[in-house]
Task: inverse folding
């Protein structure tokens, strides 16, 4: 293998200046290689959209450009995994989770191959690109596939923590990430464990359980509500499958109003809200659950910031929805 170039060298500076959050994907993979893990990476002609151009510059013989061939990329990654390497393959989440769903189910998950499937530009973050590029069904699709782990990091540092944790997990993983412009939730870095939530606090009136880009908005909304005299907590449920059942049940037990709320950049059918509802139902918890996201519709087409405001997925919007739920 070729020796890597220094991440501080001129070849790296400014490569992803527009979307600095994209560097975290390559950072995590470079750290795995430097730690002795037999990692390869590939993308469906989107290395400049997901930041893998940085990994490709460091380890050109560990990177494959598959072209616009998502299904072939997934099947090839499954085959590569049988030889002892750990493949990380990335493309737009809408193409990966939907177009390549059969290959993920049969070639990757059914065979238990440790492929890391990176679905980026999730939810409605591609804005003007429209319905074909919006990924609002991927959580539901992926978590319904047997033995496939599903995670949704809230920012770049948490993505790096997910990649580090994946080094010791001998299972296929679907990792759902944004577009590299999401606000940072964990500026000092964070720890991650599959099946464990990051609890920012339980609320006596309400705990908001969020994932992905919605975590920052949930924390912003909770801070505003708490400043107004409420007691609202937030759980970052980055690990959607396996999910942290204990954290959900503790949040339910801590709520004197018997209310929980989920927030996700996804259809409310089949996503995080559905996963939380399943836990509450399984355990017979008599508690009200508000599922907030896209309410079984195809998103409008507009700049992402406008869409987040329209669907009340930003801080002020989440606060408005939570206030209405608290009053109801």
Result:
């Amino acid at each position: 293998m070729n020796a890597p170039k220094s991440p501080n060298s001129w070849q790296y500076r400014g490569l992803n200046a527009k979307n600095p959050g994209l560097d975290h994907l390559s950072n995590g993979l470079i750290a795995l290689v430097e730690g002795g893990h037999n990692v390869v990476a590939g993308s469906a002609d989107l290395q400049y959209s997901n930041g893998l151009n940085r990994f490709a510059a460091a380890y050109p013989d560990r990177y494959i450009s598959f072209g616009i061939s998502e299904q072939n990329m997934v099947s090839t990654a499954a085959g590569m995994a049988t030889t002892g390497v750990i493949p990380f393959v990335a493309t737009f989440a809408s193409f990966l989770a939907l177009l390549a769903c059969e290959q993920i189910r049969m070639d990757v998950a059914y065979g238990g191959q440790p492929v890391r499937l990176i679905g980026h530009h999730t939810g409605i973050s591609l804005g003007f690109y429209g319905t074909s590029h919006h990924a609002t069904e991927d959580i539901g699709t992926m978590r319904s596939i047997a033995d496939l782990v599903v995670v949704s990091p809230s920012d770049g540092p948490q993505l790096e923590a997910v990649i580090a944790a994946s080094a010791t997990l001998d299972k296929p993983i679907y990792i759902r990430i944004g577009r590299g412009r999401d606000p940072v939730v964990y500026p000092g870095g964070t720890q991650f464990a599959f099946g464990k939530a990051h609890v920012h606090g339980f609320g006596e009136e309400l705990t908001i359980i969020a994932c992905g880009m919605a975590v920052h908005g949930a924390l912003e909304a909770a801070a505003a509500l708490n400043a107004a005299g409420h007691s609202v907590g937030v759980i970052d449920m980055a690990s959607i499958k396996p999910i942290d059942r204990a954290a959900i049940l503790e949040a339910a037990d801590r709520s004197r109003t018997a209310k929980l709320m989920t927030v996700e950049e996804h259809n409310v059918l089949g996503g995080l809200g559905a996963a939380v509802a399943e836990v509450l139902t399984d355990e017979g918890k008599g508690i009200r659950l508000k599922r907030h996201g896209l309410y079984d519709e195809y998103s409008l087409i507009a700049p992402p910031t406008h869409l987040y405001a329209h669907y009340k997925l930003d801080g002020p919007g989440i606060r408005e929805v939570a206030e209405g739920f608290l009053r109801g």
